[in-house]
Each structure stands twice: as structure tokens, then as C-alpha cells.
């Protein structure tokens, strides 16, 4: 098999592994907090059994903390399931806003994740026929790189607009300084994006990154390979 194809296939698998590693780390944090709080509840129970006074508010706080972490865990698992199902079909109709929502949620588990503001889109859902998994990979890796580019305390702003030729949509990332994304993406990510007709460009005049997503996968791309 061609070396480029081998690398492309490996990178897709590696991306899936990296995302699941960050998810499992987040779930580990959830379980650690629940375990610590359960231990505190056990100590309070022992105190009460020995006749020592135990403030009811402490019990309520522990219970509330456990409930909060359980809900957080359920939320993480929901994102994991959404991500896992992105490989169900090679090509299908997807809402770009849903891809963005999942990408933002998944990238929030990264240790270096920053603040993100996805601007509301006013209009019909921006639908495209594409490979959900590969589009997810492109958007997620763009977010991960963006977090490394923005300064501490800054907020990354994301918006979706229709392209002027009406042949697709643009996902706009802003909040960077001059030259923030020059040299991005690397050749492998560019190849992955191109396989579904997606183009990633840095607009130096506006200091923003643009991801063009076509309405449908074009000639010579994944759908016809």
C-alpha cells in the first residue's frame, strides 16, 4: 500500500485513540472525585456512629458533589458515544453546528483547552454530505492547535457562514494575534482535509483561520475512492 495512504490510515486511528485517551482521563477524574467524596461520607458516618456531632450541611454537600460528578460523567459518556458513532457511515448528511458542538465538547477535555464562544447561526441548519469522522478530525485538530495559539485568558470565537459561491460553508476561527496560524495545517492534516474536499486557509488580513466545507464531497474524493 502507498506510504501516504498508510500514514493517513494510521493518523486517523491515532486521532481516534487520542480523543478516547482524553475522554478516559476525564472519566478518571470524575471517578477520583466521587471516590474521595465517598470516603469523606464514610468518615462522617463513622463519626456519627461514635456519637460525634456531624453537621447535616456536610452530608448535603457531599451528596450534592457526588450527584454533580455523576451527571458530569454521564455527559462525558454521551460525548464519547456521539464521537464513536461518527464512524458509522463513510458519508452521510451532517449538521456543521453539531460537528462543532461535539468538537468543542471533546476538546474541552484537553489539559490546555481554552475558552470557546460559538456564535449563534441564524438560518437553516448548515447541512453537508461528507465523512463525519474525517470532518470531526479536521475541526478537532484545528481547535487543539488554536488553544496553543491564543494567549492565556483569551477567548476563541467560532462562527459558521455560507460561502459566497453558495457551494459550501466556512467555519471561521478568530481571536488570534498577527500570524497566529501561519504554517498550519501540516501536510498530513491538509491531505486528510482534501480527501473530503475541505480546505484550511489562514486569512492574514483578518487574522483568522477559515475551514471551507463543501456541500458534498467532490470528484476524486473519499466517496469515489
From TrEMBL:
GO terms for molecular function: phosphorelay sensor kinase activity. It comes from the Bacteria. InterPro entries: HATPase_C_sf (IPR036890), HisK_dim/P_sf (IPR036097). This is Signal transduction histidine kinase dimerisation/phosphoacceptor domain-containing protein. It comes from Desulfosarcina widdelii.
